[in-house]
Amino acid sequence: MPGTGTTARTTDADGRDVFTKTLAGAPPLFFEREAVGLRALAAAGARVPEVLDVAADHLTLAWVETGHGRTAQTEERFGQELAELHRSTAQESRGAPYGSVDGEATGYLGACPVDLTPTATWQESWVERRVVPLARRAVDEGQLDRATAALAEQITPDRLGPAEPPTLVHGDLWGGNRMVDTRGRNWMVDPCAHLGHREVDLAMMQLFGGFSGRVFAAYAEVHPLADGWRERVAVYQTVPLLVHAILFGGGYGVQAGEALREATR
């Protein structure tokens, strides 16, 4: 695993406030892939910090001043904006492969590598290239028993919901990766952006809290969800829970096992 990273707010040569993340011994393409994701989201109309500089050991972004409290209005706007991001990118990506936004297979969910190799099917992208390998790694790390990990291979395409065109998703949309600035505008940071199923974002938003019911109601008004989406939350929480089990241990292995059992019940 790489060393402990640091963050700092500074001023660059042009007098702009910037935010720099550094990580000595960062794994290959660690910051580069985050920058690619941020730029892809920005190009699709999402509000994300501008990438100013990226190298193997650091990433510098334009500073975003936070401080506005979350209100009914900010929650509704976030739901609407996320729905429009998902809807518009699905319309534009029909026929595109699932996975990486630019063909590079390397991805990171937090500090954990994930396989974003472009694939023709969502089943291969989500289950075969992420859930199954992560479950096996969780076994190797002592966080999951083999019998439970084997359930990953039983996740069938019907468990992933009706087929939808690839959608640009944030990929790591927990409450800490959404900010509200001093003007009440919503921002997203720290993505694992890829072309996938929009329910990936919605399931992650429900994993650790931080999003009110107004967000989901506003989302559904703009871009209605397919029947049964609540029952699919577990299958779309398997990847982040397995990653947390691998990185942090503790009770996350138990939660990951519960999600795998629910996803195959």
UniProtKB/TrEMBL annotation:
Family to which the UniProt record says this protein belongs: Belongs to the fructosamine kinase family.
Family annotation (PANTHER family): FRUCTOSAMINE 3 KINASE-RELATED PROTEIN (PTHR12149), PROTEIN-RIBULOSAMINE 3-KINASE (PTHR12149:SF8)
UniProt GO MF annotations: kinase activity
SUPFAM superfamilies xrefs: Protein kinase-like (PK-like)
Source organism (scientific name): Ornithinimicrobium avium
Record keywords, A-Z: Kinase, Transferase
Keyword Kinase among record annotations: yes
Nucleus listed as a keyword: no
Name of the protein described by the UniProt record: Fructosamine kinase
Superkingdom of the organism of origin: Bacteria
